[in-house]
Specification:
The protein is of the alpha/beta class. It has 23 helices and 20 strands. The chain folds into four domains: 180 residues, Beta-Lactamase (2-Layer Sandwich); 84 residues, no CATH class; 189 residues, 3-Layer(aba) Sandwich (Rossmann fold), CATH 3.40.50; 66 residues, Orthogonal Bundle (Helicase, Ruva Protein, domain 3). The protein has a six-stranded antiparallel beta sheet. The chain has a five-stranded antiparallel beta sheet with strand order 2-1-5-4-3, sandwiched between helices. The two termini are 51 Å apart. It binds adenosine-5'-triphosphate. Adenosine-5'-triphosphate binds next to helix 10, helix 12 and helix 20.
Length: 642
C-alpha cells in the first residue's frame, strides 16, 4: 500500500479529475490542508485544548440550544455507543462542548475530550473540522484523514444550523476501529444525520413556539421547516427550506406564504393541538406533503432553565408556566397557590420543600412572574452547584481586587442584583454553615456589605429558598442553623411528588400530549400503563425525559413499552434517577441499589478525573445537573482535593 502521506500529496498534485472513483471528497479538504494551511501529512501536532473557563463561556453562549442538544447527544450515544463510537458536540469553532464515551473501550480515543478544538487547520481533514469548514454533512473514514495519526479512526459529522440559518455547532461520532466496515460507518452517519435533524427541528419549533410550523418533505425525502404567523406570513425558515425554496439565506423578512404556494388557507391551522397531515401545491404545480403543527400551548414542553446571568430577564419570559398551570388539578398544589397569591404583597420569605424535579424552581419563577415584583429582576443561585468558596462572593458581592482572581470591577452579588425583585436560593440545604450565619445577618438587617468594601447596601428582596433535603434532620445533625430555617420559612410550601399527586394521570397524559402527541406519535395502552405505574423518583423532570426519549426511539408512530427504557436504568447510574422496574414499583432491591451505587461512584470518579476536576463538564458527561452531581459527590463522601 502506498505510504499514506505520499498518497495524499500525489492526489493533491493530480487534481480531482484523476482520482480513483469515490475519492474526490477528501481531495478538496486534502488540498486545503496542503495549499491553504501548509500542513504536511506526517504526524499531527497536539490538538489544541482550551481551559475550562473557555469551555464554560462557550457553553453559556449556546445554553438555549444546549438544553435540547444534551438530550439528543445522550440519545445518539445510547444508539452508536453500543458499537464503540463516542459522540461529541462542538461549537462552530470546533471547540468540543460535550462528549459521551466509554473511556474504558478499546475503541476510545481520548483526543475528543471537552475543550479539544477540531479544525482542519490543526487536525487536517477530520469529521468536525471539515464539516464546519464546508458547512456540510461529512464522513471521514480511516485513511481519508489527512494525518497518519488518525487513520485508524472514522468520524461522521453533521453541521447544525440555528433557526436564523447560522451555523452554530457540529454533531459528530468517532470510533477508533481499524476493522470498521465502511457500510457500518455509513449507517452511523445516517443515525447522526437523523439526530441532527431532530435536534434542529426541536430548536426551530421552540424558537417559533407561537407560530404555526409547516414541515414539508422535499423531493429528496428530507424535511424542511417554515414558521408562519396568523396572517400566513412566512416569518422563519430553516436552512433546508431556504435552500429548497430559494429564500434569502440571511436578511429574512416576512412575506406571504402564498408567494410560494397556491392559496389554501384551510391547510394552515392556527390553534394548538396535534399535528395534522397537509399538502401544499407549489406555483409550478408540484405538490409537497408534510405536517402542520399549530402554535404551542403556553406550557407545551419542558422548558430551558434560564441561566443565572440571564435570570434577571425575569420569569415572565414567554413560555413560562403560570401558577395555575403549575398546580394542575392537584388539591395540595392549588391550595399552595392560593396561599402564595394571598401573601404576595407581604414579601414574607417562602421555603419550598420537595423532592428533585417536582417543580420548585418552576414555582419560584411562576410566583415571581405573577407577583407585584414581576417587572424587577428574578435572580437565582444554586447553592449546591457552586464551590463553597464562590458562594460567598457570588451572593454578597465583592469589591474590585478583593481577592486573587477577582474581577477588576468587582461584583455586585446576587442580593444586590435582585434588589426590588426576587432572589431564589435553590438547594439551600447545601449552604455551608459559615455562610448560613452571614445569610441570616443579611436577612435580618436587609443590608449587604460586599467582600473587601466598606460600603453597605440596603436591599429589598423577596427571598424564595428551596431544598430537597429533610431540613429538620439537618438541623438535628447540626448541619443547618435552626434560626436561619425559621427566618426563611415565612411560609412553607410542600410540593408533592409526582407519584403522590391526585392528578398524576392527567399530568402524564398532558406530558404525552405535548411531547408525543404534538409529533403525531401515540402511546400504546401497555406503555401508558407502565407510565402510570412507574414510581418516578425523578418526578416531572424524569417524566418529560422518558417520554421525549421514547418519542425518539419509537419506530413508526407508536410508543411501545420497550421504547420507555424503564426496565433498566435509563440514565448513567444515578440512584436519584435510577428507575425501578416498571413492573415492580416498589423499587430496586437492596443489592441492586448497592450495585447501582457502586457503579455510580465509579462513573463519577472516572468522569471527574477525566474532566480534571471540572464538575460542570463531568455533570454534562454524566447526563446529570451540576446540583445533582454535587449532591451525589456528597452522598458518596467524595471530597475535592486542592
Ligand atoms: N407545571 C409544570 N408543567 C410542565 N413542566 C413542569 C412543570 N413544573 C415543572 N416542570 C418541568 O419539570 C422539570 C423539573 O422542574 P424544576 O426544575 O422546577 O424542579 P425542581 O423541583 O426545582 O428540581 P430540583 O430541585 O432538582 O432542581 C423542568 O423541566 C420543568 O420545566
Amino acid at each position: 500500500m502506498m505510504h499514506h502521506g505520499r498518497k495524499i500529496l500525489e492526489a493533491v498534485r493530480l487534481g480531482p479529475g484523476r482520482l480513483p472513483l469515490g475519492q474526490d471528497f477528501p481531495y478538496r479538504s486534502w488540498s486545503r490542508c496542503v495549499e491553504e494551511y501548509g500542513l504536511e501529512p506526517g504526524r499531527c501536532g497536539p490538538i489544541p485544548l482550551v481551559s475550562h473557563r473557555e469551555i464554560n463561556t462557550a457553553r453559556e453562549a449556546l445554553e438555549d440550544k444546549l438544553v435540547f442538544a444534551y438530550e439528543e447527544v445522550d440519545f445518539l450515544y445510547s444508539v452508536v455507543g453500543k458499537i464503540g463510537y463516542c459522540v461529541t458536540l462542538t461549537n462552530a469553532d470546533g471547540l468540543t462542548l460535550a462528549e459521551r464515551a466509554d473511556r474504558s473501550s478499546r475503541f476510545y480515543s481520548d483526543t475528543e475530550r471537552p475543550g479539544s478544538v477540531w479544525t482542519e487547520r490543526f487536525a487536517g481533514t477530520n469529521g468536525v473540522g471539515t464539516c464546519l469548514r464546508d458547512g456540510a454533512v461529512t464522513s471521514v473514514y480511516q485513511d481519508e484523514h489527512f494525518f497518519e495519526d488518525f487513520i485508524e479512526m472514522s468520524c461522521a459529522a453533521v453541521p447544525l444550523f440555528a433557526p436564523d440559518a447560522s451555523l452554530w455547532a457540529a454533531l459528530n461520532v468517532t470510533v477508533r476501529n481499524p476493522s470498521l466496515q465502511r457500510e457500518t460507518h455509513a449507517i452511523a452517519l445516517e443515525v447522526v444525520r437523523k439526530s441532527a435533524e431532530r435536534l434542529s427541528e426541536a430548536i426551530f419549533r421552540r424558537s417559533h413556539g407561537e407560530r404555526t410550523i409547516l414541515k414539508l418533505w422535499k423531493p429528496d425525502g428530507e424535511p424542511c421547516l417554515l414558521a408562519v404567523d396568523a396572517d400566513h406570513a412566512v416569518v422563519g425558515a430553516d436552512v433546508a427550506a431556504r435552500a429548497f425554496l430559494k429564500l434569502p439565506r440571511t436578511d429574512f423578512s416576512p412575506f406571504s406564504l402564498w408567494r410560494l404556494f397556491a392559496r389554501d388557507p384551510a391547510a394552515i391551522r392556527n390553534d394548538p393541538g396535534p399535528s395534522l397531515p397537509m399538502r401544499l401545491t407549489r406555483l409550478d404545480g408540484t405538490e409537497l406533503r408534510g405536517y402542520v403543527y399549530g402554535p404551542s400551548a403556553p406550557n407545551a414542553a419542558p422548558r430551558a432553565r434560564p441561566a443565572p446571568a440571564r435570570a434577571a430577564a425575569g420569569a415572565a419570559e414567554a413560555g413560562g408556566v403560570t401558577l395555575d398551570q403549575w398546580a394542575g388539578a392537584e388539591p395540595r398544589m392549588t391550595r399552595s397557590v392560593d396561599i402564595l397569591r394571598r401573601l404576595s404583597r407581604t414579601g414574607l420569605p417562602i421555603l419550598l420543600l420537595g423532592e428533585t424535579g417536582v417543580g420548585k424552581d418552576t414555582l419560584a419563577r411562576a410566583y415571581h412572574a405573577e407577583s407585584p415584583r414581576a417587572a424587577q429582576p428574578f435572580v437565582a443561585l444554586n447553592c449546591a452547584a457552586m464551590p463553597e468558596t464562590l458562594i460567598e462572593s457570588e451572593l454578597f458581592g465583592y469589591a474590585g481586587g478583593a481577592f486573587t482572581g477577582a474581577r477588576k470591577e468587582g461584583s455586585a452579588g446576587r442580593f444586590v442584583q435582585a434588589h426590588g425583585g426576587t432572589l431564589f436560593l435553590d438547594e439551600i440545604g447545601d449552604m455551608p454553615p459559615h455562610l448560613q450565619t452571614r445569610l441570616l445577618r443579611v436577612l435580618e438587617s436587609g443590608e449587604v456589605a460586599p467582600l473587601g468594601s466598606g460600603k453597605i447596601r440596603k436591599v429589598d428582596v423577596q427571598v424564595i429558598a428551596a431544598t430537597n433535603h429533610r431540613l429538620e434532620q439537618r438541623i438535628a445533625d447540626g448541619a443547618f442553623r435552626a434560626d436561619l430555617y425559621y427566618r426563611l420559612a415565612g411560609v412553607i410550601i410542600h410540593v408533592p411528588t409526582l407519584r403522590e399527586r391526585a392528578d398524576k394521570e392527567a399530568v402524564i397524559d398532558a406530558c404525552i400530549a405535548c411531547t408525543a402527541g404534538r409529533l403525531g406519535v401515540r402511546v400504546a395502552p401497555a406503555a401508558r400503563r407502565i407510565l402510570l405505574q412507574h414510581s418516578w423518583p425523578g418526578n416531572l423532570r424524569e417524566l418529560y425525559l422518558v417520554v421525549s426519549r421514547a418519542v425518539s426511539l419509537a419506530e413508526g408512530k407508536l410508543i411501545e413499552p420497550h421504547d420507555l427504557l424503564l426496565t433498566v436504568p435509563a440514565m448513567p447510574p444515578d440512584p436519584l434517577h435510577a428507575q425501578p422496574e416498571a413492573r415492580a414499583p416498589a423499587g430496586p432491591s437492596a443489592d441492586v441499589r448497592a450495585r447501582l451505587d457502586e457503579a455510580e461512584r465509579a462513573a463519577i470518579l472516572d468522569n471527574i478525573n477525566a474532566c480534571r476536576g471540572d464538575v460542570a463538564a463531568a455533570a454534562h458527561n454524566l447526563g446529570m445537573s451540576r446540583a445533582t452531581l454535587y449532591r451525589r459527590l456528597k452522598a458518596h463522601g467524595i471530597t475535592r482535593r486542592g
